[in-house]
From TrEMBL:
Annotated GO MF terms: orotate phosphoribosyltransferase activity; orotidine-5'-phosphate decarboxylase activity
Annotated Orotidine 5'-phosphate decarboxylase domain residues: 31-243
Enzyme class: lyase
Protein's name in the database: Orotidine 5'-phosphate decarboxylase
PROSITE patterns: OMPDECASE
Biological process, per Gene Ontology: 'de novo' pyrimidine nucleobase biosynthetic process; 'de novo' UMP biosynthetic process
Organism of provenance: Piptocephalis cylindrospora
Protein keywords: Decarboxylase, Lyase, Pyrimidine biosynthesis
Active site: D90 (for ompdecase activity), K92 (for ompdecase activity), D95 (for ompdecase activity)
One Pfam family this sequence matches: OMPdecase
Length: 257
């Protein structure tokens, strides 16, 4: 059955962050996210600037940046506006609600102040969502739950994944979707973001498992997350970003037919 377009889904979305993101994908004709796992401020900003035109979402691990400062956040925010992308801090919160709220709002990074989207493991139960929501909802942010993981031997399967869906359904004001390998439910229109994507290799020697963008989109993913496939050793970053964007967008267009 043909799927509705990102633009059509935007019209029916009740969550404003998810709506804005779907509109951005449609406008920019990109369902590609880059996973910018680099450890210097200069490299991170360089990636955001050169790859910004091709992506809908810039995914960070802010705690691996060795020279983090507020200016990095200010510059990244300016690049997000200039190139029209959202920022996803891949923090993978995993503690009780009160603690994650503090980790989200305070400390060195103040993630809630600049990341449009962040994510959490469902393992502590629904309190992790309400804790994060207390800081995120007033700022218009969105949360993804890790319903599955791309790594070999992941424990996020079966009833764990099912319980994650139930937790998401109970919190539509803040949960906009999942990190997962495939579409999980038709009970609400969630966003599905899939890491573990590569066109050339199958793994990384540390448990990561790669599938192609087409495989992810065919399974119902909305956003394809690519890291080293774009900027790994010897890669032409812009050429690779274009290649992944084209492959992912072509797979999306096929899913509409
Ligand atoms: O299950 C997961 C969830 C995530 S968010 N598997 C993942 O690989 N990720 C993240 O996606 C991971 O933290 C990394 O930032 C990115 C994949 O990077 P790559 O270089 O393997 O494409």
């Amino acid at each position: 059955m043909p799927r509705p377009s990102y633009g059509e889904r935007a019209k029916n979305q009740k969550n404003p962050l998810a709506q804005g993101f779907l509109e951005l994908m449609e406008r920019k004709q990109s369902n590609l996210s880059v996973a910018a796992d680099v450890s210097s401020k200069a490299e991170l900003l360089e990636l955001a600037n050169v790859l910004g035109p091709y992506i809908c979402l810039f995914k960070t691990h802010i705690d691996i940046v060795e020279d983090f400062d507020q200016d990095l956040v200010d510059q990244l925010t300016a690049l997000a506006k200039k190139h029209d992308f959202f920022i996803f801090e891949d923090r993978k919160f995993a503690d009780i609600g009160n603690t994650v709220r503090l980790q989200y709002e305070k400390g060195v990074y103040h993630i809630a102040d600049w990341a449009h989207i962040t994510n959490a493991h469902p393992i502590p139960g629904p309190g992790i969502i309400t804790g994060l929501a207390s800081a995120g909802v007033p700022r218009g942010r969105g949360l993804l739950l890790l319903a599955e993981m791309s790594s070999a031997g992941s424990l996020a399967t079966g009833t764990y994944t099912q319980s994650t869906i139930d937790m998401a359904l109970a919190h539509p004001e803040f949960v906009i979707g999942f990190v997962a390998s495939r579409r999980l439910t038709d009970q609400a229109d969630f966003l599905y973001m899939s890491p573990g994507i590569g066109l050339d290799v199958k793994g990384d020697g540390h448990g990561q498992q790669y599938r192609t963008p087409a495989q992810a989109i065919e399974g119902g993913s909305d956003v394809v997350i690519v890291g080293r496939g774009i900027y790994g050793p010897g890669k032409d970053r812009v050429a690779e970003a274009k290649r992944y964007r084209e492959a992912s967008w072509a797979a999306y267009l096929t899913s509409l037919e």
